[in-house]
Structures are given as structure tokens and as C-alpha cells.
Amino acid sequence: MINEKIAQAKQICREKQIDLWLTFVRETSSTPDPMLDLILGAHCTWPSAFIITAAGDALAIVGTLDMQNIKDHADYQVIGYVASIREELLNVLHKIDPQKVAVNYSVNDVMADGLSYGMFLMLKDYLTGTPYAERLVSSESLVAALRGRKSRTEVQLIREAIRETLDIFDNVTKWLRIGVSEREVAEYIKAQVAQRRLEYAWDETHCPAVFTGPESAGAHARPTGRLIEAGHIMNIDFGVRKNGYVSDLQRTWYFRRPGEKVAPAAVQRGFNVIRDAIRKAAEGLKPGMLGWEMDALARQYIIDAGYAEYQHALGHQVGRQAHDGAGLLCPRWDRYKDLPFSVVEEGQVYTLEPRLTVEGHGIATIEEIVQVTKDGCEFLSQPQEEVWLI
Amino acid sequence: MINEKIAQAKQICREKQIDLWLTFVRETSSTPDPMLDLILGAHCTWPSAFIITAAGDALAIVGTLDMQNIKDHADYQVIGYVASIREELLNVLHKIDPQKVAVNYSVNDVMADGLSYGMFLMLKDYLTGTPYAERLVSSESLVAALRGRKSRTEVQLIREAIRETLDIFDNVTKWLRIGVSEREVAEYIKAQVAQRRLEYAWDETHCPAVFTGPESAGAHARPTGRLIEAGHIMNIDFGVRKNGYVSDLQRTWYFRRPGEKVAPAAVQRGFNVIRDAIRKAAEGLKPGMLGWEMDALARQYIIDAGYAEYQHALGHQVGRQAHDGAGLLCPRWDRYKDLPFSVVEEGQVYTLEPRLTVEGHGIATIEEIVQVTKDGCEFLSQPQEEVWLI
């Protein structure tokens, strides 16, 4: 997989007319560059340069003590140094003489922003007096393409993580009852994760995140001792990592009050609006659309139905990370910088996850995962069609 | 512990005349700032600012969805935002009106270098037209003091991690025999780690790192299928994390050939030179010395004994990380930037880990851990006095 991605990176360098892609890092177990999982699969200690070129080179300049470890992990030509990386780095640059050097920084995309400011200052110092100081650009577009375009194997791995997650949701549904706490629901899920020897898709303090009833935090917080009551909507945001790839899904349950056969009309309607907002977005999705145009399909549908708009993006890419970076389906808010203008591309895998509040009951939210195809999209998750009744 | 460290940070701000310390981060599960373990203990998603002031404020400006999670973890006054952090961040800066703002970047110290270059550009853009754009300094000295000055509780936790590690080394010694591979030694140790429910102090692909014989990689590489032979020196570099704090220790074994009662003179002498280089360094250690002066005590001793000098630092600080950052005991090589000139301070915890090659046998290396006291140092690890014979 690592060497496949290195090969893909060389091709993307050519396509984007980037002569050389430099990933400049150090002590990556403390300050990781998110791309190293994809193009190295190991850590390094001293200042290290991973260089992939349009001409087809893959070079790693690392401290001598790291050389063997790097060789063990990926097909780089490994160059070691002892006192300073400066000389070897300049040697390589002068030899390749790139007109355009993509470097691992980006205002917009966390996944392309692994260069620390301290390392940038070090690099700038090294390049002073060379022509390359003026040839640095962000690796953003390269990284977006490399992460976004999932290979067949990568999609298969994501499907596997989704399957495990939906299985666990099925078990949760069988087990759930009024009177258990958010924390107990989370503990039940964590026991399933342990039993299946899976990892968590994100920080396990809020993976799963469990929210029941009208007073819950709603998102990104840890489960509390709040008890599930009749009349509550509960939602769970949960994903697993399996073989390095993750899922990220949300489902909505309703807990019937005595005598209720189905959910009250308000709950039903809220759920259906979310479900249909996702359908609307999936039907409208085409390669070439911009992120904000996609977001607007679901957002406008919810506003038109008379609900407050959700305060986040419609969806993000999924892959090695739950938030896999780049090409976000988000509104044109300053918080998102240029991301609303990123282009939807074939091969990308996105979540679709609008939400709305049903007053007095809780928050209805579904999160599905789709892959962009040549002319539309395909659901990788089996969509939730109805609110799940307990 | 988190709130203790926040209180300590306020005090260090006053001592160093830093009005405001800003830790500016986003998506910290992909791009963590190493200081958040110490002053937050949680992750955040959108651009987030953690602000500690000399006047005694502790403020967190985070995306609304992260607010509850941050409140659950540490005593910050939490301010939420939806569209952009800009306005709330500028509000806080204008209100506090700091003359000096320490920001989470550093050329020298990874632990103080959590600000990505993309986030720096974002911050610069926000501060354009304000007086604060010109008042930014590196948080390096603040971070070095905050990480370095271990509280009594922190030292107790490090001692615990050391105790576990030395226990495991004792078990290894009982179990070791000629003919097992480096990988089998590592697997034996990993089984002990699992049984004791410990974590690894660094990347578990080379924690433990096991090197046997004259042909081994020597450091930082993963264990191989190389078999232990009679006449080999073997060394193991290993540490565990327990309750958030780590150990990092090396020990040296010798495998006797048929008829050998003790190690050959060359092995004995190599081991003793390393042991005595550590003694020399520990005896010489005084608060106020510079990192390179400390390193030179051991380095010169080894050179004077006729061996090649080691190609790394004598020691690094240990704490929440195996490489805990700042104040390194290292030579004046460009690779180490300004670190050789950092001052040894009371309360810091350092490794001492010189090495040398015994031709035809392998690499002799010992790594001990000491804490700097008012007028010297105290060993936190029980020092290895003799080469361990198998």
C-alpha cells in the first residue's frame, strides 16, 4: 500500500507539474505529519526530508540511526547524515534542480499541513541564497489528490470498517433500553470494539459519542451519566479503524413512551427531513461540483423544511482518518477558508451528515458514507431508512 | 495534574515576563501539539486557541462542538465560536493587551513547535493591522521550564515506569539464551508489557529495540531475525508508559562462548568505559551547566579511552515523552541548533546514554535516568554496574 501510494504520488507530481514534493519533518511520534502514514508508515527522529519527484525519484534524507527503519518500511533511496541535514538536502535539490517545490504546509488542509513553523524557519535558513527559496508552494493540491483518490484496495478496507460499525449498531439496537445511561451505551460499544480487536476511528473519549434527549451536548463531547428516557431521540456518532482505514457513521434511535406504536409526528418528520436531505445530496452529487454547492443541497432542503441549519459541514472525506482532509462539503464560512471551493473528484469518499433538532426530543442526525463515481456516487454504507424504534 | 500544570504555567509566564502564552492548534488528533497532553489532555477539531496569562487567566477559544469536551478536561474559561475564531481571538487579545505573546513554535525544541506553518499564516493574517503581529515570540523557554521542572508527582510516575522496565529486564535476563532471535526477544518483552497492561514509551515497531552482535543496525531499527550467538554483545533500548509518564533505558548483555567464565577483556573494557563515562557525567552534573558541557564529560572520557565518539547526544529529558524536549545534553553540532547551549536546571530529568562499539562483538550501551538536584543529580534508575552475562 505504501509503495503503491509513492508510485501514485510520482504520477500526481507529473499531472500537477510539481517537480519535487518535499515532506520535511522531525520527531514524528510527537509531531506527526499526517501524510507519513500514507507514504512511509514509520517514524523518524531527527530532521528528515522525504522527497518524491515527477521524474520518479523517491529519496529519504534521515539521521543515520533512522536509516534501517526507513528502509524496512518503504522503497526510498535512503541518505543518512550525522551533524546536519543541510548539506545532503541542498545536494539533492541542486541535483534535481526543481522549478517548483511543493512543501508540506497548507492554510486550508490539515492533512497537508505537517510542517511546523519551526521547521519552516529551519528550511528557509537552509535555502537562503539558493534559487529554491522562491520556488516553494503548498503541497495542498497534491496531497488532496493523493489522499482523495482511493484505490480499489482502500475502498475495500473502508467498506470493512463500515461493515463492522453497522454490525455493532445492530447489536446496540438489540441491547438498548430505557434507563441506561449514555456512558453505559458507550461502554457496551467499547466492549464490542475490544472483542472484535478493532481500534477507534478517533479519540476514544468521544468515540462513540452518545447523545440522548433534548438536553444533550449534541456532538463531540464524551458520554455522560444522563439516562435514556421515554420520548428521547438518541444519536450515536461512531467509527472504527480496521487495517488502517476507518468508518464514521451516525444513527438515530427513538425511545417510545407507553402506548406509542411509532414515533411522534415531530420526531418522524425531523428524521425524514434528515434522511431526505442526504438522499437529495447523494442524487445531486457529481464530480466537478464545488464543496459548498454540495453542502447547499442538503442545507437548503433543511432550511426549506423549516428547521435551523446545521452549524458544521455536510461532509468530510474518510480514509486513514475520520477527517481525512481536503475537499470538504462545507458552507462558505471563514472557518473553512478555501475549502468550500474544492472540487469533488471521482474516487473520493465522503460522509453526508446533516443534523437538526427536534424540540423536546433531541437531535436527529444520520451520517452515511458515499464514494464519488464517474457521474454520481455510490453508498458504501447501507443507509438508515427509518428512525430505529426501541 | 493538568490543572497543576496550568497553574505552573501562569507562574512561569510571570517569571519570564511573558504576558500571554498562546497555543494555536486544530484537528489535534492528526496534528497534535505536544504540549496539549500537559495543559489540556483532550483533542480539539476546529482552529482552537489555548491562552494562559501572567495575570492568571486560562482561556480556551474553540469550536462550539468542542466546548463541552474541553470543559470536561481542564479548568479553562471556554469561549465557543461557529464561523471563525478570528473575532473571539482578537477580542481576547485586545482585552488583555499583551506586550509579549509567546506562541507555540520553536526551531530548537520539538515540544514547543506544535504550530503548523499553515496555522502560522492564518494567525498572521488575523493579526494584520493589530499591534500583536509584532509582539510574537517563541514559547520555547516557557515550554522548556514547564516540561522540565518535574513536580514530585511527576517524578514518582517516572520512577514507577522505570521500576516496571527494570523488572522486565530482570525477567529477560532469566529467560535469555543463545540461539533466540532479536525478534523473539522483542516478543518476549511485548508479552510482558501486555501482561502488565503498560503502554510503549515510543513507536512499538522499535520499542523494544534489540541489537545483537557486531553486524546489527545498532539503534532505532526494528528487531530482525538475527540470532544471538556466543560471543555477541546484545543491547536493548526499551521504555514503557504508565499513567502518562515514561521510562527510557538501555542495558547490555554478553553471551559467553564455551569455556568462558567472564566476558573477554575487550568486552569488559568497552562496558566499563561506558559505565564510567556515565559515572563521570553524573558526578560532574551541576545545575547551571550547559548541555554541551555535560555531553563533553562523557564524550571526552570515551575518546580518551581510545574509542570513536558516539554519534548522538549524551542524554535527553524524559517525562510524558521519551524525548521530552528542550535542554538536551548534546554536542555543538548544527543538527542540534541552539540546544547545546541550554542550561541544566534543578528538577529536570535526563537520560545518560553514551555508546561505543566493541569490534567483533557488538555495541556496548547503557542508558540511565537521573534527576537534577540543587547541587548535583540523583539516579532514578538503579545503574547497571556490570555487563550482564548469559
Number of strands of chain A: 18
Largest interface: A-B, 65 and 65 residues
Give the helix level of chain A as a range of percent: 25-40%
Number of helices of chain A: 10
Fraction in beta strands of chain A: 15-25%
Poorly predicted runs of chain A are none
> Which CATH C-level class of the largest domain in chain A is it?
Alpha Beta
- What integer is the average pLDDT of chain A? 94
How would the global form of chain A be characterised?
elongated
Architecture overview:
The structure is a homodimer of 390-residue chains. Chain A has two domains: 146 residues, Creatine Amidinohydrolase, Chain A, domain 1 (3-Layer(aba) Sandwich); 241 residues, Creatine Amidinohydrolase, CATH 3.90.230. Helix content of chain A is 33%, strand content 19%. Chain A starts with a helix and ends with a strand. In chain A, the strands form five sheets. In chain A, strands 4-3-2-1-5-6 form a six-stranded mixed beta sheet, sandwiched between helices. In chain A, strands 8-9-12-18 form a four-stranded mixed beta sheet, with helices on one face. In chain A, strands 7-10-11 form a three-stranded antiparallel beta sheet, covered by helices on one side. Chain A is α+β, with helices and mostly antiparallel strands. The model of chain A has no long low-confidence stretch (mean pLDDT 94). The longest helix of chain A has 24 residues. Chains A and B meet through helix 3 and helix 5 of A and helix 3 and helix 5 of B.
